[in-house]
Structures are given as C-alpha cells and as structure tokens.
Amino acid sequence: MNYNLNKLGAAQQKTSTLAGVKKLLQLIAHEKRILFFALAAILVNSTLSLLIPLIIGHTIDSYVQQKNFTGVLHNAAILLCMFLAALFTSYMQTTLMGGVGQRMLFTLRNSIFNKLQQLPVGFFNQNKAGDLISRVNNDTDKLNQFFSQSLMQFIGNISIMIGAGIFLLIINTRLGAATLVPAVLILLLTLALSPWIKRKNALNLKSTGNMSAEIQESLNNFKVIIAFNRRDYFRKRFDAANRENYRTAIGSGLANNVFVPVYGFFASVAQLIVLAFGIYLITIGEFSIGLLISYLSYANNFYNPLRQLAALWTNFQVAMAGWDRISQILSLEPDLPQLPAATPETGAPLLEFRNVHFGYDENREILHNISFKLERGKTYALVGPTGGGKTTTASLIARLYDPSKGQVLLNGTDIRTYSPAARSHEIGFILQEPFLFTGTVKDNILYGNNRYEDLSNKELEQVILDAGLGSLLAIFESGLDTKVASGGDSISLGQKQLIAFMRAVLRDPSLLILDEATANIDTITEKLLGEILGKLPETTTRVIIAHRLNTIENADEIFFVNSGEVIRAGSLNDAIDLLLKQKRQSS
Ligand SMILES: Nc1ncnc2c1ncn2[C@@H]1O[C@H](COP(=O)(O)OP(=O)(O)OP(=O)(O)O)[C@@H](O)[C@H]1O
Q1: Domain residue limits, the chain
Q2: What ipTM was assigned to the predicted interfaces of this complex?
Q3: DSSP letter at 361?
C-alpha cells in the first residue's frame, strides 16, 4: 500500500480533505456554548461599530449645526459607553476564541499522534520523521492561528461589512451602488487568486517539512557524518532544502500579500466615488454634510474590514493548506486490519506460513510462495546471505507486515484475528537494532509489560534472578537504576541487546524471535544467553537469525533463506554447504 504522504494520489487527497474537514468540525463541536458566546460578542461589537457613525452624523446634523452643546455632550457620553462596550466584547471574543484555538490544537496534536501510533511499519518506511514532526508541530499551529485569531475577526469583519453595505444602500441607493462596485471587482479577483495562494502555501509547508526531515536525518546520523567527514555533504543538502524553503516562502509571502495593496487601492477608489458623488448630491440638495460624514464612515466601515479580510483570507488559505497535510495523516487507514476473533485450533503448529508472498512495494516481491511450520518448544534458525530475506520473514512472523498473498497462522488461526496486545503477548521480537527509551534499565525492561510494573526494584530483581537473567543485569553498574540517556545512545550496542533480551524474555512469549540479537555481544556473554535460551519454558519456540553459525549449533531445524525462498537446510553442515554454494554462485 502506498503510504507516502507526498505521493498520495489526487483522488485520495481530495477525499481525505473532505473527510478531514468533517473531522475538523468534530474537533470543535463540543465547544458550541463558547462558540455561541464568542459569536454573540463579535456581533454586538459589529453592531456597535455600525451605530457609531450614525450617531456621529446625527450629532453633526442635529446638534453641531444648531450649536446645541448639551446634545453634543449627551451623544458623546453615549459614544463613550459604546466604545467601552466594544472594548469589552472585543476582549471577550479574543479570550474565548484563544481558548478554543488552543484546545483544538491540543486535541488535534493528540489525534495525529494517536493515528501515527496506529499506522503500520510500512508508513514509517515511506515517510521521513522530520516531515511528520513538522506536520504535528508546524501545520497544526497554522490551524490554531486561524482559529484563535482569524476566525472571529473573519466573522466580525463580514458582519460589519454586510451591515455597512446595507446602511450605504439604505441611506442612498445610487451612491451606495456606486460605492460597492470596487468591492465586486475585489470579490472576483479573490475568487480567481485563492487556489493559487493555497497552492503557494502548500508548497511552502511541504518544503518546511522537507527541511525538517533533512535536519532530523543529519542529527540522527551525526556519528556517521563525522566519521566519514560528510559534514560538507549534509551542509550542502541542508543548504539546498533551506534554499527551496526560502524560495517557496518568498512565493507564499508574495501570494499572501498580493491582496493587501490591491484592497487598499480599491478602498481608496471607493472613497473617491463617495466624495465626488456625495458632494455632487449635496450641491443638488439631495444630501446633507452630516450624512456625507456618516457615509464616509460607512464606506470606511465597509472597506477597512475588506482590507483586513485580505490578510484573514490568506491566513485561511495557509490554514487550509496545513489542514490538507494534517488530514492526509488522519484519513489514512492502516492496512493491518484485525479480523473477528477465532478459536485457536488444538494440535495446530504454533506458527505456519501458507503460500506467503510479500514485497515492500508492489513492483518487487521479496518472498515468493513460502510455506513452513514452527512447532511448539523447538528452536529454528534462519540462515542465508545478506539481503536474502531473513528479517523480512521474521517481520511477517511478528506481523509487522501482512503478506501480499497467502496466510500466516498463529495457533492454527489467521494471525490477523489476534489483537495487537494478544499477538505481542504471544510473540517476542528482539530486533537487529534494538531501540531503548530515555529512562532507566528498569523502565526499558518493563516496557510493554504490565505484569511486573508495580513491583519494587527488589521484587523485580528477584523475578530477573528466577528467570536466570541475574548475570545479565549484573553487567549494568547501577543495576535496574542504570540511566539510559538519549534514546539508548548512552550505553553500548551490546548492552542495548542485553536489555532488549531481558525485556523480551520477561514477557514470557510463546515464540521468541532473535534477529542478530547477539551480534554485538562478547562470546562469553553470548554463551550465557544460549544457556538462558535453553532454560526457557519447554513450550517456548525460538527463531534465531544469526550470521555467526556457532550460535545456531543447537537448532532443531535450520531454514536457508535466499532470493525470496525459504528452504529446509537439514543439518548445520548442509546449511554451511548451501551458504558456500550461494557465495560461489554470486562471486
Ligand atoms: N523497509 C524496506 N523497504 C524496502 N525494501 C526492503 C526493506 N527492508 C528490506 N528490504 C529489502 O528486502 C530484501 C530482504 O531484506 P532482509 O532485511 O529481509 O534481508 P536479511 O536476510 O535479513 O539481511 P541481513 O542478513 O543483512 O539482515 C533486501 O533486498 C532489502 O533490500
């Protein structure tokens, strides 16, 4: 399945946006009450802004021209109260919507992170972590900015505009119609340019994601970069990504600001129309000075929000470009579905591959029509040349991927009928490169293991001793409290493998897979691990992938994995013959 977010098909992107918008609305659906109050505050604010010019016009025509200063003071007091009320409603609306934006940001980040947790390994193979981080951090923030700052201003400005437009038409229809002509031109221009603005912003967000991916890759691999003196190479790559980001930022900045001067120009044209046409109407006795002053205020009330709408509209386009990228993740359906639970078959082998085919992408099949059975309590070894398909076979056993054709059965039933929790309880997988979390050895040993999580250090040490793992724990200076920093980088690779080994064994799985799990461990400790493996419960099945053939001496059965085929190799000597034959053929 294609999980590459940057290469999703157009149709998929379209449906994901639609589905995403619905989900976006769901995210703030429970805020109805607050949205209602914020909306009420903005509408009161807009109404006040609309009434103020009317009162000023009335003051000029009724009191100023008659030199009635008591009336002027009276209206000034009313205006002051209205200004205060406008201040209060504006404050209310900002505070309420700020909260809505932050809560939405919180929920959205959680939703994306939860979705990322559900996605299969294939997704992470196809997308760069840096780009995903940028989606979770940067793109969600664009939406937050829109919700907390722009949405209510958007609604407020539109309501002021509509009100001002109505006043303009009511006060004088001909003058009103003439004043509104530039607005129609602006509307048409906005509609024409919006897709271009959104596209420019999408390109900029994408290049920000790429830049973040570049930073993540070089930070993750800094040791290799320093060892191979490749700093210049990564500097150049970052420079290229940064340059692309700069280029797209200029493009989006230009697109985002294109409306501001254009709107300003049309607003000035509207003022000119009001002045020229209004003065003409005064000269023929159809208009008063007070009305013209009110009218100019209404024209301002109409065009000022329109000017602000230019900026808000681009905020909306930026937010929607970000939302497209977020909803691409939210709408992804993991391709590892769980089938309805089935009853395990008694007497069935622990695990079976039935005519399994698999490829990481559709164009290249890695495993071809593989069938084998793993019986309870036996030890199996997978040997074969580098890149032959051993890790891939083990990954399918642990259901990190599903076959493209065929079936994997656990206890006689399709492995897809097991919940992730039940499956990981049955199958323990020690990966080639174990990953540890920042914390202590204890945190890492108990990772994903609820059984012992409430035990004190002493009790856990006893459990470890009982499981025969005491000599492994003794290798760590401060025992369970040994610190693991920087995602495991503070300890050696061999020590990481030992922690991963203890972690897997303490989970007491029915099937334990060790993928090159002892490759970085000294021979004496490796022997110790062999003994521990030998003392596992009789029913535990072990699958060992190893290049060092001495580690698989005691295997009950050896499979030779090469060029997408898994064949029974017979004895260790037969496996060595097969390996030598394969080496001769490939050289
Ligand atoms: N994530 C992946 N995406 C695409 N192709 C992959 C991926 N992982 C492995 N492959 C390809 O699948 C093939 C089998 O790889 P696999 O890791 O299973 O081999 P292996 O026998 O375990 O090798 P090794 O002994 O080096 O660990 C290789 O050709 C490899 O290039």
Answers
A1: 10-330, 351-586
A2: 0.96
A3: B
